[in-house]
Amino acid sequence: EKGGWSSFMAKEISEEPEAVGNTILGRTHDGLVHLEELAPIGDAALKDVDRIVIIACGTAAYAGMLGKYAIEQWARIPVDVELSHEFRYRDPILSDRTLVISISQSGETMDTLMAVKYAMASGAHVLSVCNTQGATIPRESHAVVYTHAGPEVAVASTKAFVAQVTALYLIGLHLAAVRGTLDEAAHRSAVDELASVPAKISEVLEVSQAEIGQLARWMTETQSVLFLGRHVGFPVALEGALKLKELAYIHAEGFAAGELKHGPIALIEPGQVVFVIVPSPRDPSSLHPKVVSNIQEIRARGARVIAIAEKGDAAVLPFADEVIPIPLAGSLFEPLLAVVPLHIFGMELAAAKGLDVDQPRNLAKSVTVE
Ligand code: F6R
Predict the structure, then answer these.
(1) Which one of 16, 54, 59 would you pick to mutate in the ligand 1 pocket, going by the greatest count of ligand atoms within 8 A of its CB?
(2) How far apart are CA 229 and CA 306, in angstroms?
(3) pLDDT score, position 142
C-alpha cells in the first residue's frame, strides 16, 4: 500500500533510513560486527580467501562497486566487481579461495542466478546479498546476508540500494575482524558511522526534497544530464544517471571526474547540466580540491553545475549554480547520503514530465530472462 504517498517510489525513498537501520539491526555485538549468516562458509575459509568477485546487475552492481572500496580498505582483500551477464562468458578464474558475492534485491534476476550457479559449480564460496526471503538466488548459494529494506514495489531500486551497501559494509567489517586487518578502534568507529547514517539520511530527505522538486520542475525540457564523481562518488554518479534514464527517459551518463579531461569534457557546452558529487573537504586525500577544479573547468565552459557537497563546504559555493548539502560523514559513508538527492531527482523529474514513476516503460521489477 502507498499509504498516502504519491507513488511507491516516494514511499520507498522515505524508507531509506529504516532500510539502513534494519539491515544493521542485530548484526553488531558490543560495537563490533558479527554476521552469523557467514557460518556456513566458516571463518577458516574466510581467512583463506585471496580474492572476492562481486556479481550483480544495474543498481545492485553500483552497490557492489561501493562494497569494493570498503572491503578492500578494511579487509585488504582484492575485489573485482562484474556484471553478472558478462561474468561467465569468458571462463573466469575461480578457485576454492575465491569468495563470490552476488547482490540482488529480488533474488530472481536470471543473469545473476546463472552467474551464481556457475560460481557454485566452479568450487568458489558463494555468498548472496538479497532482499527477498527464500528467493531462488539465496537458495542456490552457500550463505546469505539478507538486506532488510522491506518489500520494494517501484521498478526503480532505491531503498534496496542503500540496504545493499550497508550489508556489504557489514560483510567488509566481518571479514576484517576474521582476518585481523582492522584495529578495534577503527572497527568501532566504522560501526558508529554506519549507525549514524539513518538519521543523516532523514536530514537529507528533509533538507533537499523541496529544492530538488523545484529543480526538477525547471528541467522538464532538458535533453541530457551528466553526473561526475570520484572514488566512492563515482558509483553514486552512475546510479544517478541510471535513475534518470529509466525514470525520466533522459540521456544521462555518469563519469569518474578524473576521466573528464580524457574525453567527456568535449561534451560540455553552455547550459549542459552537470551534477557533481563533491568529496568532503575534510577528507585526508587530495580529492576535494581536484573535484573543485573539475567544477571550475566545466563551469568555465558554461555548464550548469549542481553540486552535492558537505554542508559548510565554502569552496564549491562560488562555482556551483545549486548546492545540495549533505551532513558530515566519513568518506566511505558519504555515498549513502549523496545518493538520496539523486533518487529524489529521478523521481521528481519523471513526475514533472507526467510519467509513471513506479512503472517506467519497457521495464519489469525483476528480470527473469537472460
Ligand atoms: C535500477 C534497477 C535495476 C536493478 C537490476 C538488478 O533502478 O532497479 O537496475 O537494480 O535489474 O535487480 P536485482 O537487484 O533484483 O537483481
Answers:
(1) 59
(2) 12
(3) 98
Q: Counting atoms of ligand 1 from 1, which one is nearest the CA of 59?
A: 10
Predicted TM-score of the model (pTM): 0.98
Using the mean position of ligand 1's atoms as its centre, give its distance from the Cα of residue 337 in Å: 20
- Cα–Cα distance, 352 to 339 (Å, whole number): 20
261 counts as catalytic: no
In the chain the first and final C-alpha atoms are separated, in Å, by 30
Rounded-to-integer distance, Cα 98 and Cα 49, Å: 6
pLDDT tens readout for residues 180-229: 999 999 999 999 999 999 999 999 999 999 999 999 999 999 999 999 99
The protein residue whose alpha carbon is closest to atom 3 in ligand 1 is 58
CA dist 32 and 254 (Å) reads 35
- Please tell me the predicted confidence (pLDDT) of residue 13: 98
Ligand 1 pocket, 132 CB below 6 A?
A: no
Distance 160 CA to ligand 1 centre (A): 9
141 lines ligand 1 (CB under 6 A): no
Question: What are the grid coordinates assigned to 238, written together?
Answer: 552512475
Q: Tens digits of per-residue pLDDT, 81-111?
A: 999 999 988 899 999 999 999 999 999 999 9
Kindly give the distance from the C-alpha atom of residue 189 to the centroid of ligand 1, in angstroms, as a whole number: 31
CB 220 within 8 A of CB 349: yes
> CA 216 to CA 250: how far, in whole Å?
12
C-alpha cell belonging to residue 219: 528541467
